[in-house]
User: What shape does this take?
Amino acid sequence: MQENQKKEDLRIRRTKKLLSNALFELIKKKPFDKVSVCDICDAAMVHRATFYSHFSDKYELLTYSIDEHIPLDKLEFSAHGTDGAVNPEKVVGDIINYVASNKDIYASILKKNNDYSIPDRIQDLFEEKILKIVNRAVENGEEILVKPEFLASFYSGACLNVVTKWLQGGMPLTADELIGNLNTLLSLSHIH
Assistant: This one.
């Protein structure tokens, strides 16, 4: 019985991955608000009924896809050096490089939509991971001058806003220049 359960889990994971990949491929071609569930199903070669057995709508699929595709768990791990100290510059660099390598996708999904706040979901994910990093720093004896929740909210919002402007062409910087500027701001806050 467990083997059947395992196969089912693999089929579910495979279907969700197909739908997620299809969504990201479609977003490269047209804005998210113009992508329909039918478009996603056609691109993934999945029936609409199958789609709705996993997701209530394309927004839930997008949230799932963001959770699955942004490697925040890896970033959380890489945020700590061999001595266990927090390295926020590494986190910022990893995030910017990941976004830069998927620029067309993130430029599309970070556009403001009236019916759903995609940037808010991305900020929530960043904030959650930054909070874990900051809490671990506090556990390791690092002094944080403000509440960890405030710090996580501040940096996730600020970084997301800067990255959004950069993706929309409002900041003519290379990814390395953007990383350097953000890291300078981080170093001024004394979070090391």
